[in-house]
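Hi U.,

Before I forget, here's the chain from the pilot set. I'm dumping it here mostly so it's searchable later in email.
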Amino acid sequence: MKPKTINILYWIFTGLFAAFLFMDGTAGLVRAEGGKEAFAQMGYPEYLLDILGTAKILAGIALLQPRFILLKEWAYAGLTFNFLGASASWYFSSVPGFIFPPLVMLSFMLFTYWLWKKKLRSAQDR
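Structure:
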C-alpha cells in the first residue's frame, strides 16, 4: 500500500473512531438513560459514567493529535482495557449477549492502531 493511501485510510478510520468516542463519552457525561440502565444491570455505580465518559473524550483527543506519540500509545492501551473490561462485565452479568459490541469496537480500534503504525513506518522510510 502506498504511504498516501495509508495516510488517507488512517485519518478516515481514526476520525470515525474518535467520533464514536466523543459521542459515547458525551452520552456518559450527560448520563444517558441507556447507560444508566446498563450500569445498573451490571451493578456499577452511576458516577462511573462520568469517569469513563471523560476518559473516552480525552482518548479521542489523544488519538486525533499527531504530535505526542506516547500519549497516543497510552490512549490505545486504555481503550483496550476499557473494551475488554466492558466485554468481561457483560459476560459476567446477567445479560451476556452484549459481550460482542465492545469486541467489535476493539477490533475497529486495533485496525486504526495497525494503520497508525504502518503510517509511522512509511514516514520513517522517506
